[in-house]
């Protein structure tokens, strides 16, 4: 297997046009492409295009083409938050009908090809229908995770000029309700460009509806037909925008296009998981993240698979929930995040062993480096030693898997192993010199691949500057990696100011901006710190305005403030009040020192003599939190 994999990988690099045009035939094109990749990472002639003369529709690929042979196959299995509630199943024919109806509702609201539609939804089937409905009419969806605040939602809508948002009255998660519609109302007071709010009834809670702006989905749906021909789209037309955190500034809108992205999502899905119908595939991510886009919706449905969608959380009502869901639906392939495994591992093996899990064939992880201990627990306890693990490394920007085992690849706990077809990773030192053989350095990708992002919405320059300037001519991932004697890659984590909290990306700059918005805060610096369950936690150093007393109450107030500004996932785990931050004479904060202190590596602070005031470090060390 590894040999044939290597041969195929080699061929994908030697004859990229032949390889990719052949792979592209697995999609259903209205006009098949005659060209594969056309790209240059050079600043003067920078461009990335794939299958440029091809024409297709993503929803037709995910639905219509399966109808003749597999119309009655289940496309989506939905497991509700409350285990006592009934799961729902939708066949391909039913999803097709729902999506056509949804698409007609969007059209009736005036949504046109190229318009941006924001999706702020709980994990209910309508969220998947909404995405596919946008794709059907050529609207560009921008999903905002339901845990983000009104400010974050408004900022994202404003950035991409989205006048329409699809939401629900409320969501359900872990036995609690999430007031989505209320948050949308608040966002609309911040961004006046919100013109239409389409509300899906989920919990049935009575929510205020604003005349002329808010529309109940079920009422609008009753008025439209279920006949909606798919819009022919050029391969390079945008399919979606997804906001993600970077090392600086506000989150950026990563743009993915139609042909290349769909091929990448589908091919990686089929190859990495070796999916065979009628297996049940369960990706536990939320649809608000790229993992949900590629491996709940697009990859599985383009492949005619059965995708399980879960409304709840792995720890509610008990920490047996994940294994109970596996048994209830006979899940064959489970794809989850190391943070979930670490939190369940703490609860002991008996809870897992009390369930059968015999349906499982393959286990996958994504989102952050998996520590060997969690890998072994996943393998030995969850998979009873029977199931291979695919540790898939990729990013919002890459569209799908980039470095990953396939089911037959010899694995090593903690290594994402080898590059996917067409992917050419390299390691560079700080100066951009390539490192050969066994080495550790900056992970870059030396050539374009079909699923890669095509831009930052509204900011071409930021796209180039973020990914192609540091090391000219290649795509910079922002991750570090080690390559071992077998050529296997071991991702070591971010080398920039992005932190990875429970597999969710957070820019330190975003949390800092939120903190300094508070009236009592003069300055803030945020770094990652090691965290047993979350992988990384958020450690904030805060300098208060003069005259303001540090207190436990203020600490709690600041945490609450960040939750309100960004959302619960950005809540600092530790806040240290610091009279001063370590700065160079030119005023630059020396984050290296702050990171070491947060990590508790007090002995390894390195040279502090270039600081404007070296004595601040003593105070920081003395008052370390945690
Ligand atoms: C990290 C999630 C190690 C990495 C798909 C990357 C991983 C960031 C792995 C992207 C893995 C993701 N091993 N690290 N298997 N998968 N990462 O954009 O730091 O939310 O840059 O995409 O997660 O996070 P994003």
TrEMBL record:
PTM info: Acetylated. Deacetylation by the SIR2-homolog deacetylase activates the enzyme.
CDD domains: ACS (cd05966)
Chain sites annotated for binding ATP: 367-369, 391-396, 479, 494, 505
EC number(s) recorded for this UniProt protein: 6.2.1.1
Binding site for CoA: 173-176, 291, 502, 563
Catalysis: reaction(s): acetate + ATP + CoA = acetyl-CoA + AMP + diphosphate
Broad EC category: ligase
Annotated Pfam families: ACAS_N (PF16177), AMP-binding (PF00501), AMP-binding_C (PF13193)
AMP-binding enzyme C-terminal domain location: 510-588
SUPFAM superfamilies assigned: Acetyl-CoA synthetase-like (SSF56801)
Segments forming domain AMP-dependent synthetase/ligase: 64-457
Entry superkingdom: Bacteria
Residue stretches making up the Acetyl-coenzyme A synthetase N-terminal domain: 8-62
Function noted in UniProt: Catalyzes the conversion of acetate into acetyl-CoA (AcCoA), an essential intermediate at the junction of anabolic and catabolic pathways. AcsA undergoes a two-step reaction. In the first half reaction, AcsA combines acetate with ATP to form acetyl-adenylate (AcAMP) intermediate. In the second half reaction, it can then transfer the acetyl group from AcAMP to the sulfhydryl group of CoA, forming the product AcCoA.
HAMAP family, sorted: Ac_CoA_synth
Family: Belongs to the ATP-dependent AMP-binding enzyme family.
The protein's name: Acetyl-coenzyme A synthetase
Gene source species: Sphingomonas oryzagri
């Amino acid at each position: 297997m590894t040999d044939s994999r290597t041969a195929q990988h080699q061929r994908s690099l030697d004859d990229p046009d032949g390889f990719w045009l052949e792979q592209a035939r697995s999609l259903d094109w209205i006009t098949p492409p005659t060209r594969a990749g056309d790209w240059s990472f050079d600043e003067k002639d920078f461009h990335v295009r794939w299958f440029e003369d091809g024409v297709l529709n993503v929803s037709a690929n995910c639905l219509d083409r399966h109808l003749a042979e597999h119309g009655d196959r289940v496309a989506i299995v939905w497991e509700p938050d409350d285990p006592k509630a009934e799961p729902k199943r939708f066949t391909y024919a039913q999803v097709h009908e729902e999506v056509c109806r949804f698409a007609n509702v969007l059209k009736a609201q005036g949504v046109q090809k190229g318009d941006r539609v924001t999706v702020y939804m709980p994990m209910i089937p309508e969220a998947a229908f909404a995405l596919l409905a946008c794709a059907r009419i050529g609207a560009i969806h921008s999903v905002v995770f339901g845990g983000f605040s009104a400010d974050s939602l408004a900022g994202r809508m404003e950035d991409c000029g989205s006048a329409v948002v699809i939401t629900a009255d409320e969501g359900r998660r872990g036995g609690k309700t999430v007031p989505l519609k209320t948050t949308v109302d608040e966002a609309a007071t911040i961004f006046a460009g919100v013109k239409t709010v389409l509300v899906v009834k989920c919990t049935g809670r009575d929510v205020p509806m604003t005349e002329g702006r808010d529309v109940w989905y079920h009422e609008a749906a009753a008025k439209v037909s279920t006949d909606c021909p798919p819009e022919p789209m050029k391969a390079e037309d945008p399919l979606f925008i997804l906001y993600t955190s970077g090392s600086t500034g506000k989150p950026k809108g990563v743009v993915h296009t139609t042909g290349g992205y769909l091929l990448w999502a589908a091919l990686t899905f089929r190859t990495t998981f070796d999916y065979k119908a009628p297996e049940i595939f369960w990706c536990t991510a939320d649809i608000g993240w790229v993992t949900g886009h590629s491996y709940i919706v697009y990859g599985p449905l383009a492949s005619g698979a059965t995708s399980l969608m879960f409304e709840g959380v792995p720890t509610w009502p008990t920490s047996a929930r994940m294994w109970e869901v596996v048994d209830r639906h006979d899940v064959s392939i489970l794809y989850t995040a190391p943070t979930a495994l670490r939190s369940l591992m703490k609860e002991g093996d008996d809870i897992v062993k009390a369930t059968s899990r015999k349906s499982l064939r393959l286990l996958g992880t994504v989102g952050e480096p998996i520590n060997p201990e969690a890998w072994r627990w996943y393998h030995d306890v969850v998979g009873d030693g029977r199931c291979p693990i695919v540790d898939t490394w990729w990013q919002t920007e890459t569209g799908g898997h980039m470095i990953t085992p396939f089911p037959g690849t010899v694995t090593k706990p903690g290594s994402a192993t080898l590059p996917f077809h067409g992917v050419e990773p390299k390691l560079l030192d700080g100066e951009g010199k390539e490192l050969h053989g066994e080495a550790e350095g900056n992970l870059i990708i030396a050539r374009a691949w079909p699923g890669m992002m095509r831009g930052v919405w509204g900011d071409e320059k930021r796209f180039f500057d973020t990914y192609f300037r540091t090391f000219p001519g290649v795509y910079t991932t922002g991750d570090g990696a080690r390559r071992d004697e077998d050529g296997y890659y071991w991702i070591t984590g971010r080398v920039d100011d992005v932190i990875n909290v429970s597999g969710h990306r957070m820019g330190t700059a975003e949390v800092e901006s939120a903190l300094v918005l508070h009236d009592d805060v003069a300055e803030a610096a945020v770094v990652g710190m090691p965290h047993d369950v979350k992988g990384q936690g958020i450690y904030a150093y805060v300098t208060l305005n003069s005259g303001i007393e540090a207190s436990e109450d203020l600490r709690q107030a600041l945490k609450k403030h960040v939750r309100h500004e960004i959302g619960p996932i950005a809540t600092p785990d530790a806040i240290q009040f610091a009279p001063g931050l370590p700065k160079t004479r030119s005023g630059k904060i020396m984050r290296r020192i702050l990171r070491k202190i947060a990590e508790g590596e007090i002995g390894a602070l390195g040279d502090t003599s270039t600081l404007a005031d070296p004595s601040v470090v003593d105070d920081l060390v003395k008052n370390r939190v945690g």
